[in-house]
Write a structure and sequence with these properties.
Blueprint (H helix, E strand, L loop, with lengths): L1 E5 L10 E5 L9 E9 L2 H8 L15 E9 L11 E5 L8 E4 L4 E3 L6 H4 L3 H14 L7 E4 L5 H12 L3 E6 L2 H9 L4 E4 L5 H8 L5 E6 L3 H7 L3 E9 L11 H7 L2 E4 L2 H7 L1 H16 L7 E6 L3 H9 L6 E5 L2
Parallel strand pairs: 8-9, 8-11, 9-10, 11-12, 12-13, 14-15
Antiparallel strand pairs: 1-2, 3-4, 3-6, 3-15, 4-5, 5-7
Enzyme class: oxidoreductase
InterPro entries: ADH-like_C (IPR013149), ADH-like_N (IPR013154), ER (IPR020843), GroES-like_sf (IPR011032), NAD(P)-bd_dom_sf (IPR036291), Zn-ADH-like_protein (IPR051397)
GO molecular function: quinone reductase (NADPH) activity
């Protein structure tokens, strides 16, 4: 029997159920993967609550990414073999022991990663890549302000921003989170509760401000970010864990600034070539040891609600993975 986390009614993580199903036969062109670890992303929590832009029909299994071993390959499924260690990319369905997918959803696991790291890599680092390279076009010497730098996508932005040659200012809610951000390359650290970050940015930059703002938080954080930007700044809207912010158009006009929405997955669906370039770069950087997810929590599949609560309560540092026993 195959275990899967199932959403039968929208709401809090505790409303989800862990159920068992018989494995289904493969159709031509399909591949069976034994899932060893699944990564958690904030959209998984929002989707289960009915608050995400993608709203699957009930019932559904949450989870956007996983890693595991190929155990069966049907006819007409090419480019993959039994025994391959793979990353599985999904829009939902990853919180399970076993996934039936197509070869196009599979990516070889970096040899430098374990299953939990592989299962928490592509979504977070892919979003950071798309934000900083495709949308923000960060160049060496620019100042990058990363909000939520202790979270999964924020920490990925710190890593990639530093690799691109930016001066990285990391903001977070605790010394522990900032310590991890520093270990991943952050040049300056700001705790939200000790100094208003807009004042800190002005102090650090001698009043000039940030060239690029990476914002997965939103709300007041987004609004305050407009008050510490340089001329021509790009504000990257990644998410809204802190609420939906309002853009002050006068501040954007005065600074000649741009607000750019970031949807890494949708961008690839609109332009698959973008995804090919991004994935090739991310896999190369992983193999070279330049990028690695920080997995602060690894919990068994049965603790899915507890794992999702770690994201809601902002207790994770980097990423959280469900590990199959």
């Amino acid at each position: 029997m195959v275990r899967a986390v199932v959403c039968r009614e929208l709401g809090a993580p505790e409303r989800l159920l862990l159920e068992e199903f018989p494995p289904r036969a493969l159709k031509p062109g399909e591949v069976r993967v034994a899932i060893r670890a699944a990564g958690l992303n904030f959209p998984d929590v929002l989707m289960a609550a009915g608050e995400y832009q993608l709203k699957p029909e009930l019932p559904f299994t949450p989870g956007m990414e996983a890693a595991g071993d190929v155990t069966e390959v049907a006819s007409e499924a090419s480019g993959v073999a039994v025994g391959d260690k793979v990353i599985v990319k999904m829009r939902f369905g990853a919180f399970t022991d076993e996934a039936v997918v197509t070869p196009s959803q599979l990516t070889p696991m970096p040899s430098t990663f374990d299953y939990a790291e592989a299962a928490t890599y592509i979504a977070g680092h892919g979003t950071a890549y798309h934000a900083l390279i495709d949308r923000g076009r960060v160049t060496p010497g620019e100042v990058l302000l990363v909000h939520g730098a202790g979270g999964g996508v924020g920490l990925a932005a710190v890593e990639i921003g530093k690799m691109l040659g930016a001066t990285v200012i990391a903001t977070a809610s605790s010394d522990e989170k900032l310590g991890i951000a520093k270990s991943r390359g952050a040049d300056h650290l700001v705790r939200y509760d000790r100094e208003p970050f807009r004042d800190a940015v002005k102090r650090i930059t001698d009043g000039r401000g940030a060239d690029v703002v990476f914002d997965p938080v939103g709300g007041q954080v987004f609004e305050d970010s407009m008050r510490c930007i340089a001329w021509g700044a790009r504000l990257l809207v990644i998410g809204f864990t802190g609420g939906i912010g309002s853009a002050k158009t006068n501040l954007l006009l005065i600074k000649g600034a741009s607000v750019l929405g970031v949807r890494a997955g949708e961008a690839v669906r609109k332009n698959p070539a973008l995804g090919e370039v991004r994935l090739k770069a991310l896999l190369q950087w992983a193999e070279e040891g330049k990028l690695r997810p920080n997995v602060s929590h690894r919990l068994p599949l049965k603790d899915y609600a507890k794992a999702m609560r770690l994201l809601l309560d902002r207790k994770a540092i980097g990423r959280v993975a469900l590990v199959m026993e």
